[in-house]
Amino acid sequence: MSRRTPKLPSWLPVDPYILALIGTVALAALLPASGAAATVAGGASTGAVALLFFLYGARLSTSEAMDGLRHWRLHVTVLVCTFVVFPLLGLAAKGLVPFVLTPELHNGLLFLCLVPSTIQSSIAFTSIARGNVPAAICAGSFSSVAGIVVTPLLAAGLLGNSGGGFSADSLLKIVLQLLVPFVAGQFLRRWVGGFLTRNKRVLGYVDRGSILLVVYSAFSEGVVRGVWHQVSAARLGALLAVEAVLLAAMLGVTWYGAKRLGFDRGDRIAIQFAGSKKSLASGLPMASVLFGAQASLAVLPLMLFHQMQLMVCAVIARRRARDPLPAPETRPVQHDVGRGGTARAAR
Q1: Looking at residue 83, what DSSP letter applies?
Q2: Do residues 112 and 304 lie in contact, with contact meaning Cβ atoms separated by under 8 Å?
Q3: This model's pTM is above 0.90
Q4: CA 197, 202, 204, 208: dihedral to nearest 10 degrees?
Q5: Spatial CA neighbour of 241 closest among 140, 93, 341
Q6: Which position among 33, 160, 316, 325 has the lowest Cβ density within 10 Å, counted as fewest Cβ atoms?
Q7: What is the Cα–Cα distance from 239 to 45, expressed in whole angstroms?
Q8: What tens digit of pLDDT does each residue of 27-58 get?
């Protein structure tokens, strides 16, 4: 399964897209959409979310996903890390409320723990560290697909009304804005797949521009409603410290847990990078659907975690790249000495 993987800069990365997101937040703080403009921005945001998930569905190669099923133990391990271990740690952080985190910031942290894994950066880091790149491609893809269904269900069970209200109406929004466009993209892939491949670069800007629109709409609504007055600099510092502990815990669980499960070095690298990270591209649109007016605070932990995971994983990937590769395993050759004779291992 050959595919050019994205390469990261040689210096410690500060993701330019994070800078664009910060600029969008600043724009929303200075010039928030209100009144009729807010209605237009909200409608455009809804359409952008549907477009994003249509493109996700149209890009996912069903044949690639099926080819990766032979690594089912690896994929199950990544899914358990993403949708079981992460949420359990998020629930454990409830003990930090209200002394370290506010209830709203904890809800955002818990939502972060429910979001699927990344695809692009998982592939990039696995490639740099000389790990199992095809496994990282499939693991990230499976996680993203599962997240369309699993993340809203987990949010309904674990966040409940604190997540902005999870009702039949919100469930209908999830189906219409996330699931239906994704299924439509998969169905139409045979007709639009070539176009998407030829225009991959341009559509990448469409992806990122759509997410910026979602962020602007969500943060504008938060500014108009005054939710940002609920967060102090000390609380933000505490949130960063909690997220650093969360990331360190997941990096350790994925690396040493994969070793205990008997995976080789290449698979352990794929599991660590796919199982310890969270997708900003999937999480931001989902938050706008799930949280409504509270989406701005809900996505703040995810935005901070995204940049932190890039910086830390870049260092780890480069260190893994310097590790000596294990020698190929040699097995003794058996020779038969006559019928019923003994077998000796060739030395």
Answers
A1: I
A2: no
A3: no
A4: -160
A5: 93
A6: 325
A7: 27
A8: 888 888 888 888 888 788 778 878 877 887 78
